[in-house]
Specification:
Blueprint lengths: L2 E4 L5 E4 L2 E3 L8 E5 L11 H10 L3 E8 L5 E3 L26 H7 L4 E6 L13 H12 L6 E5 L2 H10 L4 E6 L5 H10 L4 E4 L6 H9 L3 E4 L5 H10 L3 E4 L2 H7 L5
Parallel strand pairs: 4-5, 4-12, 5-7, 7-8, 8-9, 9-10, 10-11, 11-12
Antiparallel strand pairs: 1-2, 2-3, 5-6
Length: 255
C-alpha cells in the first residue's frame, strides 16, 4: 500500500484508510483548491506559495494542454478573452499562467492533486488523453510519485495516466449524484488509489467502505467549518477547500 507524505513541522503520513500525525493521532489533510484562491489569483505560483504559507498540506490544481503539447495550469478551457488554450502555443500564454512543471516545483514538499481537464464538450478534446499521460510521466520524472495524485472526472483519463506511469497514484472525482458504492467498486477494480466524491456524498459508511478496499477518500470542495469537521469526523483522508486557513482552524491545526 503506497504512502503519501508532507514535509515540515508536524510531519504527516497518509495511507489509504490510515492518517497519522506526529503524535499518532488521525489527521485529515487540507488541500487548497487551486491554491490560496481567496487572496491570490487561482492556479498561479503565488496562490500555491500562499497556500503553503498558511499551512495547507497540499494543493489541488488543474491541468490543460496547449496547441504545442505543453502542460499548463488553468481551470477553464479558454482565457478570459475567449481564446481556447488548446489553440494557443505555450509562448502565447500570459506570464501569470504557469506550466505544470513550474507549479509542481513550487509545490515540492506538499501534496499535489493534479486534476486533468479534458471534457468531450470542451474545445480541444483529446480522445487519446495525452494530457493525462504526460502529467503522470512528469510527476514520475520530477520524483514526486510519493506526494502527488493525478485525478479527473474522466475514468478514461485516469486509466490513461495509470497506463503511462503505473507508479503514479490516480483518483476519480465524482459528483454527489453518482452511485458512490458503484463508483468506489469501479475505481478499486481499475486499480486507482483514491476516490474524490463531492463532500455532499460523504458519510462514515462511504469512508469505511473506501478504506476496506484499500483506497483513500478526498472530499471536494468544502468551505463551511462545521461541514469540514463532519467530513473529517467521517474519516476522510483529505478535504479540498477554497479556505485552507478556515479548514485548518476548524480542525484545530492552524499554526
Amino acid at each position: 500500500m503506497s504512502s503519501l507524505r508532507t514535509l515540515g513541522e508536524g510531519r504527516l503520513l497518509v495511507c489509504a484508510g490510515r492518517r497519522k500525525g506526529r503524535g499518532g493521532e488521525k489527521v485529515t489533510l487540507v488541500l487548497a483548491h487551486r491554491g490560496m484562491s481567496t487572496t491570490q489569483r487561482e492556479n498561479t505560483l503565488a496562490a500555491f506559495a500562499a497556500a503553503r504559507h498558511v499551512g495547507a498540506d497540499g494543493v489541488e490544481l488543474d491541468v490543460r494542454r496547449t496547441a504545442d503539447g505543453a502542460l499548463v495550469v488553468h481551470h477553464d478551457p479558454a482565457l478570459d478573452d475567449g481564446s481556447p488554450l488548446s489553440a494557443l502555443r505555450a509562448s502565447e500564454l500570459p506570464a501569470w499562467l504557469p506550466t505544470l512543471e513550474a507549479a509542481l516545483e513550487e509545490c515540492r514538499g506538499l501534496v499535489v492533486d493534479a486534476e486533468v481537464k479534458n471534457l468531450v464538450t470542451e474545445p480541444g478534446f483529446d480522445p487519446e488523453e495525452a494530457a493525462a499521460r504526460q502529467t503522470a510521466a512528469l510527476v514520475a520524472r520530477m520524483g514526486m510519485v510519493g506526494s502527488a495524485f493525478v485525478s479527473s472526472f474522466s475514468m478514461t483519463a485516469i486509466d490513461a495516466a495509470r497506463e503511462a506511469e503505473p507508479s503514479v497514484r490516480t483518483a476519480w472525482l465524482t459528483l454527489a449524484a453518482y452511485d458512490q458504492a458503484d463508483a468506489l467498486a469501479l475505481a478499486a477494480a481499475r486499480g486507482h488509489a483514491a476516490v474524490q466524491p463531492s463532500h455532499e456524498a460523504v458519510t462514515p459508511e462511504l469512508v469505511a467502505a473506501t478504506h476496506r478496499r484499500g483506497l483513500a477518500l478526498h472530499a471536494w470542495t468544502v468551505d463551511d467549518p462545521a461541514r469540514i469537521r463532519y467530513v473529517a469526523d467521517c474519516g476522510a483522508d483529505a478535504v479540498i477547500t477554497n479556505r485552507p486557513d478556515v479548514a485548518l482552524d476548524a480542525l484545530g491545526r492552524r499554526r
